Amino acid sequence: MCSVLRVSRSGYYKWRTAAPSEQLQRKEKLKKRIIWHFHDSEERYGSPRIHRDLKKEGWTVSERTVGLIMREEGLRSCMSRKFRISTTDSKHELPIAPNELQQDFSATKPNEKWVADITYIPCRQGKLYLASILDLYTKQIVGWKLGDYMTTDLVLDALKQAHTAKRPGKGLIHHSDRGSQYASKDYREQLKKYDMKPSMSRKGNCYDNACIEAFHSILKRELIYCKPKFKTKQEAQEKLYRYLEFFYNRKRSNSTLGYMSPVRFEQLYYERNSA
């Protein structure tokens, strides 16, 4: 081989025993950190979020370089398939609240505006439905409940959990679609008991509740459709609890929050306002 390539044997062996260059050593360390962050996020993070985490650690690297290394290593974040089941039953004669939110998804503090919705969760043991409540300021899931049916009790349990956890003051705007569960007498009475102002989307307008719709899309992409279907309802409960309470609320960086987690963003708000 040395003869064909016209190099000396001594030069070849010197090259074999020479230490890797600083550039190669740095790339190897960077690759290990990228692989670590990818698997630490359970294969949910793509190059933008891994790039942000590396910058927090002090790395000087471009997002493009992170993407190239991920491609070399065959690291690809979860991708979901499009699949939708209607979870809104608006064909009823129950009272409809006015649209107080008016697509204004901004908020100035935690527990000022909450948005709620139901989504379908596939499971081999049987259908499941998740009722979620999201805080528009912190982007935190403040309440959720998994159940076999889309009942008023399902959304009520999510609301009660959220109220117990956050204890919001009077006047919080609670926005949802026109589903019969949210328009039911029991739910309206519970909102009144909590001094919350009900708000509902216009008929057939999914953009009026875009933030919670976007969250459910993230949930489907990162947990539901990029993994094997849940075998049992108990497994679904455990995996959703782990994702919502530990990963999404406490760990997952959110681009609208300056790549902080919802819980960290909420903590910073209270730290600033207690000083």
From TrEMBL:
GO terms for molecular function: nucleic acid binding. It comes from the Bacteria. It comes from Paenibacillus selenitireducens. Residues 106-270 form the Integrase catalytic domain. InterPro entries: HTH-like_dom (IPR025948), Integrase_cat-core (IPR001584), RNaseH-like_sf (IPR012337), RNaseH_sf (IPR036397), Transpos_IS3 (IPR048020), Transposase_IS3/IS150/IS904 (IPR050900). Involved in the transposition of the insertion sequence. GO terms for biological process: DNA integration. This is Transposase.
